Amino acid sequence: MQEQLELLIQEAEQEIAQCSSPNDILNAKAKYLGKKSLLNSLYGKMKELDASQRPAFGNQLNQIRKQIEAALNKRATAIKEISWQKDRAEFDPTMPGIKLERGGYHPLSIIRNQINEVFLSMGFEIAEGDDIEDEFHNFDALNTPADHPSRNLADTFYVEDGKLLRTQTSTVQIRVLENYKPPIRIISPGRCYRNDKPDPSHSPVFHQVEALVVDKGISMSDLQDTLQNFASIMFGPQIKSRIRPHFFPFTEPSAEMDISCVACAGEGCRVCKQSGWLEMGGAGMVDPAVFDILGIDSEYYTGFAFGLGIERIAMLKYNIPDMRILFENDLRMLRQFQGEL
Ligand code: PHE
Question: pLDDT tens digits for 88-109?
Answer without folding.
Answer: 999 888 989 898 888 899 999 9
